[in-house]
Structures are given as structure tokens and as C-alpha cells.
Amino acid sequence: MSEQNAESEQDAVSEQDAGSEKDAVSEKGAARAGALLSVRELSVRFRMRGGREIAAVTDASFDLAPGECLALVGESGCGKSVLASALLGLLPGNARTSGSALLHGTGLDLLAADEATLARTVRGRRIGLVPQSPAGHLTAVRTVRSQLAETVRELTGLRGQELAAATRQAAERAAFPADHLDRYPHQLSGGLAQRAATALALVGDAPLLLADEPTTGLDRDLVDRTVDELRGHTRDGRGLLIITHDLRAAERVADRVAVMYAGRIVELSAAAPFFGEPGPRHPYARGLLEALPERAFTPVPGMPPELGDLPEGCAFAPRCVRASEECATVPALTGGLACHHPVPAQDVAADSERDRHRDLDRHREQDRHHEGSRA
Amino acid sequence: MNAPSSEPSSAHPPEPSATPSPEPSATPPSALELRGITAGYERGAPVLREVSLTVGAGEAVGLLGPSGCGKSTLARVAALLHRPYAGTVLLDGEPARGWRHRAPRAQRTSVGVVFQQPRLAADPRLTLAALIAEPLRATGRKDEAGERTAELAESVGLGGELLTRRPHEVSDGQLQRACVARALVLGPRLLICDEMTAMLDASTTAALVAVVEEYRARSGAALLAVGHDRTLLERWCDRTVEHAAVQAPTTGKDATGTDATAAATGTDAGAQVGGAPVRSGRRAPADTSAG
Ligand code: SF4
Q1: SS3 helix, strand, coil % of chain B, rounded to 5?
Q2: How far is residue B109's CA from residue B92's CA, in Å, rounded to a whole number?
Q3: For the whole prediction, is pTM greater than 0.90?
Q4: Can you say how many angstroms the Cα of residue B258 is from the centroid of all Cα atoms in its chain?
Q5: pLDDT of residue A362
Q6: What pLDDT does B26 receive?
Q7: Does residue B156 lie within any of the structural domains?
Q8: pLDDT in tens, A62-108
Q9: Of A83, B173, B187, B269, which is most buried, counting CB atoms within 10 Å of its CB?
Q10: How far is B198 from chain A (nearest CA, A)?
Q11: What is this model's ipTM?
């Protein structure tokens, strides 16, 4: 854990930022300077019995700007939820973190802050958490109104009539219907339970929303509505970090995508070129996207490695058709890619040419990207 | 399978007009036929009303519906795990005579089932190898366990040390792989997959669908895949059916008929449709409501 030297680190971070993420986020470049959250080289290790160590997250770096939605995607067990827990200070006792996660405007490094600070000033106030399982997050024996009121009182100090009004407003902000406020969680549909949980997350007016698998188990229509609503909350400048294994949900709402594999971010890209043309450049990211039933519907061969038993070098090498001797060393994340042999943008385009109908606009976009990757 | 190379089919709205099925003169009996199934957990408030659905021999049918619509109950009825209040279930043309442990062994073992949540469907004390072999043990075919388990474990991508682990030591995806192997271990004629991939990422989903399709290609088994993901089921199955369309209409406007084939949306024009048309004694009220 680095010392709490937030100010100077912040400067160092913005400098580094300008260089390392240029490619991936060029069109968002302006927003970078005023990032809400800057995560640098965040690593999480779990110490297990018998001295075994699990490398849940390794060297994750990214920024989140106000009004921006970043989707962190990957298979279950890739470390993305651990990363979220690390930002909220919710890791179990056997976890050790390193790196930094600066929450701008507070001068606070989330990884260095103590539990009291996180509980008092961060969770709910600076970062609103939209949980994975709203049913589990709500208290079963109390009505939505009572839970919402308690959170409003805690965060605003309001009482009486004002509290009641603020509670109704809080429900309204998450589109939770007022006539359902006196229901208990088990009386709510999946969609309404999710809205109740979102309402709770929004009470403190936190500038950063963190949604950890907010759509697990929901039907597609409800997934779409849930992520659209979350996205709506970025309109007034909130940042949204959405952690999901659902690529379609990510495609729907994200400005940028970070793909995690075996604890590392392997590709960090603007969403449009990632989901459209030329597509993902990292072999794993590309394989994951191609596994969708609306695309090739072919799985990435093999299974991800155990985080407690990672192979030397690139962790994807045993499953990668592009692997070479070079891949015995871990590739660094540069220009939004951590790969020794990324899929060239032209190849991707040529492949898709055979598969898909494309229009002239896309050709133009591809040319632009081609130039970009030479730069 | 794997994955037809053609474009994924786009979503077709259900056709209310029935495509007449070919005359089933010499065709084998349907793998599954549900006739007028009413089922639920409270007599007064059934979650399924007079559902009729046919899965032809070797056919793959996707049953689409939102969560909570009763399609999981339907899957459990078809797998002889839940006794309906009324209606008939036919497996390979044979009427079901009992449910759960009362089901005749031959019928029970002719259906393999995979559920949405592997953690709820797996005995936490068993290793993955024992889990896969469980149905063999339960049917007194223990001696085949070693060979069959190894074979199936390999086909679902599990191997070596993983097979000695217990459910809490593996990921959801790995456990679901074991559950698919378990469902195949007795060589079922019909597979029922109830939201099999709802918890899984895209790659594991594609991998498990490929395992099921390889088995079906080898064995000629039929499939009923229940889910809410239209894109997935349309890519996977010969045809898809809306859950609302297999129920008897309650209001007369949200359902179009009782015969599933009436609402079939073939993903492949040449796909064999439904085997025998439903010939229940009950007249389909479709004629009055479908207009
Ligand atoms: S670094 Fe090598 S093994 Fe890893 S993804 Fe790139 S090409 Fe494949």
C-alpha cells in the first residue's frame, strides 16, 4: 500500500495518463483531466491457508470521467468483482492491496483510507453501490419506505415532513413507484427490487455509481431497462462503473469497455470501435465477443486459469492461437492493449468483410482507425 | 453442432396462423408431448393452464418466456419432476404414469435435465466425478461409472484434478459443465435445459450449447430448451415457441392458441416441425381468438 500522498500522486497520475491511454480514449481525451476516479496499478492478493496466494487483480489502471460509463467485463472469477470490492473497502481480512485509487475532489486514496473514513465519507456519499442482488441488499422485514427513509436520514439529517418528502423524491429518482413504497422486498418484482436498490444508492447524491452485476438473473427487457436507467443517472455528471459479464448490456450503455482476464485488464477501448469496427484487438476479448449467439457462437477453447495458479507470462497463452515464445513474458497494457500480437485492425476488418454486410461509412471509419494505429 | 455458419436468424414475430405439419404417417413418436397440462403449487392458482406443446423426435424446441411465467414449472412437469393437476405427458409416445421417484425408471432415465443454478442442483458433498456418475449409481450401473465419467468429463472440458474437487471449490461455469455431463450420463432420449446458461458468460454458454448439440448429433436426442434469451434460443433451436402461446388463453387476446406448433417461429425454413400435431380431445380455442 502506498503512503497517503494523494496530491503529488494525483499529478503523477495525470501525466502518466496522458501517455498510456491516449489511443483507447482519444475522443474522451478532454474529460481525462477532470477524472472522477483514477485507478493505478491496483492489485489484490488473497493469502490462503498453507501460504498459497491468489492473484485476484493485478495492475489494473483506468480512469472514470464525470458523465462517463465504463463497463468492466469478463467471465465470472476474472477478478472484476474483487476490484469493485477493493474500491469500496469491502475486501475480506486476508486481502492485501497495492496501487492507488484516487477519488478526485476528496484527495482520498480509496486503497489507503481506513474503514471509518470509507464508512463515513465514501460509501453512499461519494460512491453509490448498486448491488448484484437487490433482494439480498434490502432488509427483508422492512418496507421499502422505511429503508429508504433511514438512508435519507443518515445521509441528510432530515426529519419529519421533510424526511417523508425527501424519501418520496428518492424513490422517484430511481423510478420506483410511490404506491409500492409500503411493500416488503419479497412483494416486489425483480425490476422493482432493482429500482429500490438503485434508489438507495442514489440517496447520497454520490458523484460515482458503482454497479456490480446489476442485471444478473433479469430478463433481457429488464436488463435493457435497468442499464438504461443507470445510464440515465450519468446525465447530470455522475460517473458510472458497471461491472458485468453481460456483453450486450455493456454494448448498450458503455462509453468505454475494459476487458478483464485472469485478474488483468487486457483491453481498454472506446465502446464503439470495440463492439463495431474494427472490433476487439486482444485475442481473448475478440473470442469472448465472437462467442455471442448473434455472432459466431463459438466458445473460446479451454477454460480460464485458476487465479491461484496462473501460468507464467500471458495468462491467455494456453488458449491463444496467436501465442508465440514472446508470450512467455507478461505483456504490459500499452495503448489500451495488453498483448504481444494483437489482432491487426485490417485483419479484423477483412474477416468481418466475409461475415457481415458493411456500408461505406464503416470503411471510412476503418481507414481512420488504420491511421490511428500507425500514429 | 457447431454454429451454423449462416447469419444468425433475426427475430420473427410469432405467426398466429399454423403451418400444417407434415402427415406423421411413418414418423417415430414425438419425444415429448404435453397435452392440456395444468400445474402449479396451489390448486386455486395454477401457474400453467392447459399447456400443450410437442417436441418431435430429434427436434430442438426453444420455449421463450419472461421469468416467473411458469416455464420452469413446465420444464419440471416434462421431466417428471412435478406432478400436474391435469393433463397428459407423453415421452416417446408413452404416457407418463408417475412423477418423481414414482416415475417408472425407464421413463425417468430417458430424460436428462439441466437447471439454471448449478449450486442448487448439485450435492455439495460430492466431488465433480461423483456428481457426474450420480445417476449411474442411482440406477445400479455403478460399474460403468469410471469409463462413462471420464468420457463425459472430457467432452464438457473438465479433466484431471478438477474432477476431485467439490462444488464450492469450482466456479459456476465449471459446476454447470459437470451438471451437463450428469444430465447426459444415462444417454437420455430427451434433454431439458431450463435456463441452463442464464448465469454464465458468453464463452461458457457457447461451449455448453456445443456439448449438448454434439450429444444430440450423435444420439439423435430431442431438446426442450427453456429460457428468456430470444437470440440464444433462436440460434440454438430448430424452432422457438412463446410461452404465452402454449397456454390456454385467459383473456382471449394474449394467447393465440393451444398448439405450440401454431406459434412456432422456425429458425430454419426446412426445419422439421413438431412431429405429430397435438391431438388432444380438447378442441383448440385458437380458432376463435386468433382471428
Ligand atoms: S500476449 Fe500472446 S498469448 Fe497473450 S493474448 Fe497476446 S498473442 Fe495471445
Answers
A1: 35, 15, 50
A2: 13
A3: no
A4: 19
A5: 43
A6: 64
A7: no
A8: 999 999 999 999 987 889 989 999 999 999 999 999 999 999 888 89
A9: A83
A10: 7
A11: 0.75
CATH number at residue B42: 3.40.50.300
Set of cell numbers at residue A209: 455509481
Distance (Å, rounded) from C-alpha B80 to C-alpha A339? 50
Residues with CB under 6 A from ligand 1: A 283-284, 314, 316-317, 320, 322-323, 327, 331, 339-341
pLDDT confidence of residue A211 = 93
More confident residue, B5 or B109: B109
Q: What is the pLDDT of residue A7?
A: 36
Count the Cβ atoms, other than its own, within 10 Å of residue B164.
Answer: 11
Give the residue among A136, A154, A239 at the shortest CA–CA distance from A204. A154
In a domain, B1, yes or no: no
The answer to the question of residue B126 being in a domain is: no
Shortest CA distance to A304 belongs to which of A287, A325, A328? A287
Interface probe, candidates B9, B156, B196, B201, chain A, greatest A C-beta count within 10 A: B201
pLDDT at A158 over 70: yes
Chain B's closest residue to A216, CA to CA, is B199
The amino acid at A211: A
Number of domains chain B is built from: 1
Partners of B163 on chain A (C-beta within 8 Å) are none
Going from the C-alpha of B3 to that of each of B100, B189, B235, the distances in angstroms are: 35, 22, 8
Instruction: Find which of A297, A319, A354 to mutate to test the B interface (most B CBs within 10 Å of its CB).
Output: A297
Of residues B66, B67, B171, nearest to A77 (C-beta): B171
User: Which residues of B sit within 8 Å Cβ distance of A?
Assistant: 2-3, 8, 66-68, 157, 171-174, 198-207, 209-210, 228-232, 234-236
pLDDT at B223 over 80: yes
Distance from the alpha carbon of residue A273 to the mean position of ligand 1, in angstroms: 20
Chain A: closest CA distance from residue B1 (Å): 10
A75, A221, A294 member nearest B201 (Cβ): A75
Return the C-alpha cell found at A273: 470501435
Domains of chain A: 3-12+21-126+207-374 (3.40.50.300), 136-205 (no CATH)
pLDDT in tens, A16-73: 333 344 333 333 333 355 899 999 999 999 998 888 899 999 999 999 999 999 999 9
Ligand 1 pocket, mutate which of A260, A281, A322 (most atoms under 8 A from CB)? A322
Dump pLDDT digits (tens) for B230-282.
999 999 999 999 988 887 765 433 333 333 333 333 333 333 333 333 333 33
Owning domain of residue B276: 24-103+219-291
Residue A261's pLDDT band (boundaries 50, 70, 90)?
very high
Q: What separation in Å is there between the alpha carbon of B232 and the centre of ligand 1?
A: 29
In a domain, B55, yes or no: yes
Residue nearest to atom 1 of ligand 1 (CA): A339
